[in-house]
Amino acid sequence: MSIQDTIIQAFVDQFDTEPTFVIRAPGRVNLIGEHTDYNDGFVLPMAIDRAVWLAVRPRAADRVFLRSLEQVEPTDFALNAIHHTNAGWSEYVKGMAFMLQRAGYDLRGWEGVMSSDVPIGSGLSSSAALEMGVGCAFAAVSGFPFDGVEMAQLGQKNENEWVGANTGIMDQMISANGREGYALLIDCRDLSMRATPLPSDTLVVIMDTKTRHSHTESGYNERRMSCERAAAFFGVSHLRDVTVAQVQHAKLELDDVTLRRARHVVTENQRVLDAIAAMRMDDPVTLGRLMNASHASLRDDFEVTNDALDVMAMLAQATPGCYGARMTGGGFGGCAVALVRRDSAETISTTVAQQYEAATGLQPDMFVTTATAGTAIIQL
Ligand code: GLA
Fold first, then answer.
1. Is the minimum distance from the CB of 35 to ligand 1 under 6 angstroms?
2. Would you place residue 238 in the very low, low, confident or very high pLDDT band (cuts 50, 70, 90)?
3. Is the CB of 171 under 6 A from ligand 1?
């Protein structure tokens, strides 16, 4: 049964009636532009065919009740008394309600069930998908339009202020605004977006190393602080405004670690712009090379890969039919992404999976994805 059918059936079982709204909020994979979003830079993600699904109906009481098919405890809270109780996944739901109300939205209560096939902690933005799905549920039942940019901003506030992860805005932006068949170039300074198709005859393979990260515990916040320190050194608000030449000239004055962190961000921004140019020329070879260079920079300069990600990227890069591969998302574990020739996607997945297992003893999860639409109510 598809996840859409499963969620509708679960709703009917629980509430004895059909849901009023069924919502799909996708995870994402970032093709290139990593750790650039909080530096006001460029990212190039696409929404994937793994998603959070919600089936909901409005309810008279001003309460929210949401049961997840993957979690033991449901979320159940009153809209006029939202408190942080460290309740795991429920905090993402409560935090969205809190942020929407703080932004002035008059929310109605609702109840429903949800299910997700975005692996948690894998770098595919399961939490941003949940946030955008919940935001869409509130919009649907309360009768206001789902504004993808504003919802992404509220989702980021939720992460930063409620959940306590100091993440950027890329994940929410792409989950909310993804477009079928396209990757989105997002300028994280003004949040403008440009849809760009993948090169012809290519597919994207996501390769889950099965190693996991946690943003609240990992070096993510520490990397952000390094970037802020570097920006201050160059006298700008964000590394977006620093050039590669400036970083090179700073070699004698800036400590080695901060210099390398800055060099990653500044060169990565340029790689995103070069990637867009390559996509416009329908040139997968150049795009793939840029992805490989991005991985090397994240490994050597930004130091956010782990052995599993390095092995996975290296194996994919060495396989015929693969144009390029790199880690995707925050790093420290999770998934890598490869751009491959359409007719080689299945062979590459099988070969790399076997080699990865032989090298690490871990059984990876490989899946081919297309670029899908962003968060929306599904017409049944
Ligand atoms: C995580 C964060 C994003 C972004 C990436 C790294 O996914 O949520 O905001 O910073 O890491 O590019």
1. yes
2. very high
3. yes
